[in-house]
Amino acid sequence: MPFTAQELQNIANTTIDFHLRGQPVNNIKQPRPLYDDLMAMKKTFPAGKEYITGPVKGQYTSAFAGYTHDDDQAYGNPANVKRWQAKWYEMGAGIKVTYTELKANGIHILDTSGSKSSQSTDTELVQLVNLLDDKVEDLTEGGARSLAEIFWRDGTQDAKVPPGIQSIITTAPTSGMKLNLDSGALSWWRNRATLGTDSSTASNNNLINLLQKEFRQLRRYGSPKHKFYAGSDFMDAFEKEMRAKGTYTQDGWANKGMLDAGLADIGFKGIAVQYEPLLDDLGFAKYGYVLDLNAIRWQPMQNEEMRTHNPERPPEKYVLYRAVTTTGGITANQLNTSGVYSIL
User: Fold this and answer.
1) pLDDT tens readout for residues 54-111
2) If 32 and its partner were Cys, which of 28, 43, 59, 148 is the partner (CB 3.0–4.6 Å)?
């Protein structure tokens, strides 16, 4: 027999939904390849009044000249050293949570600083998510996400954060001040850039041919350590050009097992082409950046990188505070070993 209306009402009044416990699953966490690489190759500096600076040189005075008999010897006085300078910045991220919120979640603060806490005996009856753990995770992940974005942007979004990659590896490299040196006047203080490559006909291999020529120039000076970051549209065009000419497989089309139609991870000149989701997020899905991470670095100040702070609560408020601060800047001592490229 079907349930009566009264029975259905009784079920509704005596039954609760089933709620999974545990910390929330992050649905928007994505890779941060540039952030990871800069953090892995960071180089600290001890202190400085306002700037991090370094010497660079792009021309020479001395040169051989022919002579015979009693011709005069010419003498030059070399004065070709320039200094780049990058301002260091202070940044902080913080969270707060009221004691009231924590009590409602079954968490009790045991001392003034908030360093000690306990949970009620029957917390599991009311707690689906540990509120304090979630807020601390928000501070950690949110801080990393925002710093990763700062590393890519040009600094115009906020005058109090360090200018990132797009302030020094620019789409107009022949003009503008970069780390206080004039790229218009110094031809050697410029990154490489080629924009608007037509990739609409994949079989023409326009993008691959361009990169083939560009890598000769990117490797022309110094000893670069290249990393290749690309937006999704740039990677799509790259993969289409590879497919247009066919791809080699050890087993060939007669493979008796599964023939995977997907390309393996792509690379160029032995360098992995890494998908950088932040380029998509920032509107640069059609761009690829080849960066020399021997020349470009994140430089945090010693003892001031990712410092945690547990401020005392103000006496008039029952609020718990947590913060993380970091101090540093993006520096570069060579630009002509890095490049930016885009497709139409």
Assistant:
1) 999 999 999 999 999 999 999 999 999 999 999 999 999 998 888 888 787 777 776 6
2) 148
In the DSSP assignment, the letter for residue 288 is: E
Which residue, among 49, 8, 6, 31, has the nearest Cα to 301 in the 3D structure?
49
DSSP, residue by residue, 160-207: TS---HHHHS-SSTTSSEETTEETTT-TTS--EEEEEE--SSGGG-HH
Contacts of 115 (CB under 8 A, 6+ apart): 310
Q: How far is CA 67 from CA 63, 74, 78, in A?
A: 13, 10, 21
CA atoms of 98 and 29, how far apart (whole Å): 27
Burial 210-243 (b: 16+ CB within 10 A, else e): ebeebbeebeeeeebebbbbbbebbbbbbbbbbe
3-state helix, strand, coil in the chain (%, to 5): 25, 25, 50
pLDDT of residue 110: 67
Q: How many CB atoms lie within 10 A of CB 310?
A: 12
Neighbouring C-beta atoms of residue 104, cutoff 10 Å: 12
Q: Which residues contact 42 (CB under 8 A, 6 or more apart)?
A: 297, 298, 299, 300, 305
Q: Are 85 and 179 in contact (CB under 8 A)?
A: yes
Separation CA 233–CA 235 (nearest Å): 5
Measured between alpha carbons, how far is 191 from 291 in angstroms, rounded to an integer? 10
> In this structure, how many other beta carbons lie within 10 angstroms of the beta carbon of residue 278?
21
291 half-sphere exposure, CB direction, 13 A CA radius: 30
Q: Which amino acid is at 188?
A: W
C-alpha to C-alpha distances, 49 to 52, 211, 275, nearest whole angstrom: 9, 41, 38
Q: Which residues contact 280 (CB under 8 A, 6 or more apart)?
A: 231, 232
**pLDDT lower than 50: segments of the chain:** none
